[in-house]
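All the exercises in this workshop are built on plain-text protein records. Instead of coordinates, the fold is spelled out as a row of discrete tokens. Once this layout is familiar, the rest of the handout is easier to follow. The record below serves as our worked example for the rest of this section.
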Amino acid sequence: MAIELKDALLWQKSVNAISSFISEGNFRFNDKGISFRALDPSQIVLVNYFVEKKVFDKFEIEPTYIGVDISELAKIMNRAMLGDRLVMDVNDSEISMRLEGDLSRNFKLPLIDVSDEEVRLPETKFDARIEIPGKVLKEALKDASLFGSSVTLRVKGSHLTIEARGTHGNLKTTADQSKKVTVKASGEIVSKYSLNFLQNIVKEADSEKIVTMELKSDAPMKVSYDIGPSKVQYFLAHMII
């Protein structure tokens, strides 16, 4: 069984997007591609990842799932260099990865036992949807981090407000419907979230690509974006206002 990908950095960014919250979990392989879904130990963030089979240059693997130490996998993939090609093989006891570029490097990671029960996705009906470039959102969250450890998001009509408060001051940032930002809401939606978790969620988002946030008052938020041709979703638990 073998998988080949000409751009190893795609898999690197994907693994990093998962490892920000999940230390171990199951990658599932089937005739559609590779998926990963897990809840972080604090049960604050659910990560849902998928990349289609057609993205790979070679995808010859029987439907299966493998338990992996995601933290160790991230360490290996962070050794990938620009232009490296990735070749992965899986057997009953380990996953082997070869990075081929100016150097040819072989890594082997033992498989681990992880519960095979797959986490169910929330079935929330959201009342607001914001589409915003990654860079714009990241900068707004950096501003918020000057004062607080949490952010309150308010959405009404075509207006988004990001608020942060702390002992040293407060911040109020607004974003209205524009060519780059789309804001749609039914009624007024207000919800509060951990700033650190939200910043880690968007860390791997491309600055020029769109991040989508779906909200409901005092409810978990769904954040999604593409990593190249792959897709990642996060469900972030809300905080009590």
Notes: The helical segments are 8-19, 70-77, 134-144, 195-202.
